[in-house]
Amino acid sequence: LRQPIVAIDGPAGAGKSTVTRRVAKELGLLYLDTGAMYRAVTWLVMNSQIVVDDESAVAKIVKGVKIDLIPGNTPHLPVEVYINQQEVTQAIRTPEVTANVSAISAQAAVRKELVQAQQNYGVEGGIIAEGRDIGTNVFPDAELKIFLTASPQERAKRRLSDLQNQGYKDINLKQLEQEIIERDNKDSNRAIAPLKKADDAIEIITDRLSIEEVINKIKELYSNL
Ligand code: C5P
């Protein structure tokens, strides 16, 4: 019998990573950051002298690509990300990768390869996965599906503090908000597995909620499974 699967979907900056990581730790579930996988492929393409829109060149690169996600040993340490044995934990979080990731994640060959890898992680259950299409496409039979959102203004503020923590200075909040809206539009309007709330997902709007409150809500829903 497989263990439960928890799917956490939602737009950029809704707090998915922080919340998912903490819930994984507290419930003893395997944490799967699917966005990190799309970011890693984007990084690889950008470092391979091919343009992100060259679908056949991207398809060649992504075929059989090896992505390893190695959990940090405290909840504060990020998961270490490797692609084809190269460590890219920090490199996949730059604004340049962020600006190109939607063009990569819209491509059929990329999604086919990565969704397969994600489903392999989940065969035995006991996993909490965050992304855009987890509840709709990767794990449509997940026992618990959460759709985390917040207003674009709130999400931009959270991204700003993430970036500041990474050492970026002089970031324009309005511009950041614009970029977030643009990325969500691309992710929501692509042909394959767009960002969308699954019919059976529970929506949590996080604007006025603390991280603790969101975590407790998810843990409560999980304990009622
Ligand atoms: O969650 P994060 O911001 O790291 O995701 C980066 C990008 O990866 C998203 O903007 C989206 O284009 C893509 N993505 C996706 N499907 C997922 C997870 C992420 O298309 N399940």
TrEMBL record:
<comment type="similarity">
    <text>In the N-terminal section; belongs to the pantothenate synthetase family.</text>
</comment>
<comment type="similarity">
    <text>Belongs to the cytidylate kinase family. Type 1 subfamily.</text>
</comment>
<comment type="function">
    <text>Catalyzes the transfer of a phosphate group from ATP to either CMP or dCMP to form CDP or dCDP and ADP, respectively.</text>
</comment>
<protein>
    <recommendedName>
        <fullName>Bifunctional pantoate ligase/cytidylate kinase</fullName>
    </recommendedName>
</protein>
<comment type="function">
    <text>Catalyzes the condensation of pantoate with beta-alanine in an ATP-dependent reaction via a pantoyl-adenylate intermediate.</text>
</comment>
<feature type="region of interest" description="Cytidylate kinase">
    <location>
        <begin position="1"/>
        <end position="225"/>
    </location>
</feature>
<feature type="domain" description="Cytidylate kinase">
    <location>
        <begin position="6"/>
        <end position="222"/>
    </location>
</feature>
